[in-house]
Design goal:
The chain has a 13-stranded antiparallel β-sheet. Helix content is 13%, strand content 46%. The longest helix has 14 residues. The radius of gyration is 20 Å and the shape is globular. It contains five helices and 13 strands.
Amino acid sequence: MQKTAIVILLLLVLVFPTGAMELSADDILDRVEGEMAFTGDGTAVIELITVNPKGLQRKHDLKVWRKEDPDETSKQLLEYLTPPDVRGTKFLSITPPEGDASMWLYLPALGRERRIAGHATKDTFMGTDFTYEEIGGSRDFTKEYKAKRLPDETFDDYLCYVLELSPAADGAEYGLVKMWVWQDEFLPLQIQFFDQGLEQSKVLVNRNIKEAAGRPTPHEITMENTLKKTKTIINLLEVEEVELPDDLFSLRQLRR
């Protein structure tokens, strides 16, 4: 009887693996699909609100076009629609599966684009609390950080994997990153960023998760700079899954 029980237990372990416990920190990080809403192919209309240290807000409306090629090169074009002083400003980013992203910012007042290269990709984007790298969706934590899995936690009623990322080499932007990843969809719900002195500098939170273009998508994204006491809120207003032509993501289109 005892032998039979042991055999049944072994069969249960083989047929019904432990799942969550089998995933390493690297496994989880590899499966994380972008830290923001801009994933997949199609278009989106967003409301972007910046909040200064005194609590004063400024609202912007933008349109985003995004495409992922069969070779996994992701392309994104963003255009400001309002207010009038920034209308027509465009940002193009092309991120290959390997190597650095190419980024350009077009300013209508100058009538030309400028290349965002090197360390400048980590500068703040258009007065927001996001960097060019974050807005362009080109950051890859697996390249600069080593991951450690911490005990699972619940965030906003979602069961999450918790990862602690520490720099794997010199040049990493942050001294430490802590990430809460929704277990069902491998979507980061909260990311805490710490500077080289290990003081918390920024916090990203994804909320209001709803189906959009066939996938669970955060419709409210908040990036708070805890050192500067500023905040940027992105509200996803419309999403449409549609095929986009390659020539949309070009310098020629950027200048139109």
